[in-house]
């Protein structure tokens, strides 16, 4: 009788374990892409303060920009609504890690360090770096001239990493407009950032205290959408981006914000 009861218990335990395994596998088999399609929403992290890539239109307050339009089109072609979650730059990757959003659309450069942690979509544009200084500063002409110099940079940005490697003294400031104001006010000697964003700031503010001191030719960055490793979203985004490049949509969006095609 004891053997019979023991046998029945072992059979019941086996079925219980099989059931648990099946449930676990079912949960894992539901990819990030399937979950997004079921909910009908793609959550995207962005700054909303980094013109012309992601910013609010001064007349309508609508979130607009090159990267905003690109990811909106990607979501549209995937058949889902894009929901933006705005945050400062230094917390964007933390938000992605915590799954508060599915990707980041914010002129994100592909770097070896980031590729170790994230999967990336195909590259959809390029970004050229420039060094901005006060107009009367004639000492800074190359990246190496930043050694020992106070520069305003986002601590987790590729520009922050680049200037730190050059030996600069980093003053943490992840919002470009505020970093440029620090340079203009003489509180720091320089900042390094994207050429398009800097030119947009010059156009909007007419700040005569600033100048582009140098172009960092060695730091042209490929721009793509980062996603969590193994999520498969990189492939889903890549499929749509390839189609957008082929049919001219990326070129059209690029020309809207830059007057030329910077897409890849």
TrEMBL record:
Organism for this UniProt entry: Sporolactobacillus shoreicorticis
Listed Gene3D superfamilies: Periplasmic binding protein-like II
Family note: Belongs to the bacterial solute-binding protein 3 family.
Protein name: Transporter substrate-binding domain-containing protein
Alphabetical list of PANTHER family matching this protein: ABC TRANSPORTER EXTRACELLULAR-BINDING PROTEIN YCKB-RELATED, MEMBRANE-BOUND LYTIC MUREIN TRANSGLYCOSYLASE F
Predominant place of localization: other
Domain Solute-binding protein family 3/N-terminal: 41-261
Entries under SUPFAM superfamilies matching the protein: Periplasmic binding protein-like II
Keywords, in A-Z order: Signal
Origin organism lineage: Bacteria, Bacillati, Bacillota, Bacilli, Bacillales
Subcellular location, record wording: Cell envelope
């Amino acid at each position: 009788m004891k053997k019979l009861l023991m046998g029945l218990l072992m059979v019941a335990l086996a079925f219980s374990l099989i059931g648990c395994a099946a449930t676990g596998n079912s949960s894992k088999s539901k990819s990030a892409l399937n979950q997004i399609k079921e909910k009908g929403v793609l959550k995207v992290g962005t700054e909303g303060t980094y013109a012309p890539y992601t910013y609010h239109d001064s007349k309508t307050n609508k979130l607009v920009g090159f990267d905003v339009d690109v990811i909106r089109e990607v979501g549209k072609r995937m058949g889902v609504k894009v929901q933006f979650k705005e945050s400062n730059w230094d917390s964007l990757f933390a938000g992605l890690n915590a799954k508060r959003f599915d990707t980041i659309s914010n002129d994100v450069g592909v770097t070896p360090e980031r590729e170790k942690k994230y999967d990336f979509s195909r590259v959809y544009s390029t970004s050229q770096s420039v060094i901005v200084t006060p107009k009367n500063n004639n000492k800074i002409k190359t990246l190496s001239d930043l050694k020992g110099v106070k520069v305003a940079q986002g601590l987790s940005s590729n520009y922050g990493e680049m200037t730190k490697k050059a030996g600069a003294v980093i003053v943490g400031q992840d919002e470009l407009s505020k970093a440029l104001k620090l340079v203009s006010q003489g509180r720091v000697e320089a900042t390094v950032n994207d050429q398009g964003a800097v030119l947009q700031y010059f156009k909007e503010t007419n700040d005569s205290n600033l100048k582009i001191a140098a172009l960092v030719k060695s730091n042209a960055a490929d721009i793509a959408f980062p996603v969590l490793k193994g999520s498969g979203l990189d492939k889903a985004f890549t499929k749509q981006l390839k189609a957008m490049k082929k049919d001219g949509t990326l070129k059209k969006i690029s020309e809207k914000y830059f007057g030329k095609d910077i897409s890849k």
